[in-house]
Amino acid sequence: MKINSLISSPSEWLHSGEGNNKIVVSSRVRIARNLNRFPFPGWARKNERIRILSITLPEVSSLGEMKPLAIVDSMDRFSPLEKQVLVEEHLISREHAAKNVGSGLAVNSSRSVSIMINEEDHLRIQTFKSGLQLKAAWKLAEKIDDELDEKLEFAFSTKLGYLTACPTNVGTGLRVSAMMHLPALVLSEQISQIVKAVNRIGLAVRGLFGEGTEALGNLFQISNQMTLGESEEEILERLHKVITQIIQHEENARQKLLQEKPKFILDQVSRAFGILQNSYIITSKETLNLLSVVRLGIDLGMFPENYRMIIDECLIKIQPAHLQMAYERKLSSEERDQLRADFLREKFKNFPSPDTRHLQFPYHH
């Protein structure tokens, strides 16, 4: 399997550069499509799912946007560990990881496109971009959708739009989301107000791995909930507006903390840095939360900007399946906690100490 070579380089959406990537880590677009005259995956018999896979996989693999292809295979060809790596990379859902014969996956080598076959719908087209680039992610997804539309006959109703397995996706079949890093809103205990406000206007706030997961590392996914009765442009526009407002709230919270509690921020960042640099046993949950605080330190100018890539790489590499893949064997959780600490000490050994000269301390001598 090509998963080792796939994860040896960082994925495109972690490359700093485009978009306001201090607060918005990445943008994702997902389109749900189904073939006409075939039952949805949940209702399809095994031989029908195999037939759907045999029709869609060659068409998906031949797309220009999928070149060069890194992965194209049936889900039963992946080991449980490889599936878990794909979940940690955000390339497949946890539901898709449970699939076997009759489900498939295609991923391009930059990991900007991942297409799940026979997850909840026949096709789940996912595109990823770094920072706040919702429109660019949508353009890429739309191009793939148009190309596939010419080759495959999609289930479509003139009254409702695209037909999907779950009623919330009917219409455009479009789910747009941004992964946001919101440590100051968490530290200043404003996050629950923001989440409530976002929920009230019909958007969803989820954790690091989507539905039903915790917001580890102060990372939150903000996405639209409904797809019926709104055009793709309206969905994108509305989400972009809300995300821009959340960025503003996070920036204000950072300024307020710096002005009112500079010692608190310095303490949080320095402790996090000290533990990452010196621990010998550490869990993935603790690591994600500490990395988040050091990333905030980079945003606030306490570390040089070029160290951001190390933090973003660590966010992925310290996760359980990635560690086991790196050491090429199954590890107990105790072994993982020790090897994770070894990995982090190595990564942080040349990290400079936090630079606090620009912070204003009222009683600092």
UniProtKB/TrEMBL annotation:
GO terms for biological process: phosphocreatine biosynthetic process. It catalyses: L-arginyl-[protein] + ATP = N(omega)-phospho-L-arginyl-[protein] + ADP + H(+). ATP binds at residues 26-30, 90, 124, 175-179, 206-211. InterPro entries: Arg_Kinase (IPR023660), ATP-guanido_PTrfase (IPR000749), ATP-guanido_PTrfase_AS (IPR022415), ATP-guanido_PTrfase_cat (IPR022414), Gln_synth/guanido_kin_cat_dom (IPR014746). Appears to be allosterically activated by the binding of pArg-containing polypeptides to the pArg-binding pocket localized in the C-terminal domain of McsB. A motif (RDXXRA motif of the pArg binding pocket involved in allosteric regulation) lies at residues 336-341. Gene3D superfamilies: Glutamine synthetase/guanido kinase, catalytic domain. GO terms for molecular function: ATP binding; creatine kinase activity; protein arginine kinase activity. Keywords: Allosteric enzyme, ATP-binding, Kinase, Nucleotide-binding, Transferase. It is an enzyme of class 2 (transferase). PROSITE patterns: PHOSPHAGEN_KINASE (PS00112), PHOSPHAGEN_KINASE_C (PS51510). Pfam families: ATP-gua_Ptrans (PF00217). Its EC number is 2.7.14.1. The keyword Kinase applies. It comes from the Bacteria. Residues 23-253 form the Phosphagen kinase C-terminal domain. NCBIfam families: PRK01059.1-4. Catalyzes the specific phosphorylation of arginine residues in proteins. Belongs to the ATP:guanido phosphotransferase family. This is Protein-arginine kinase. The gene is mcsB.
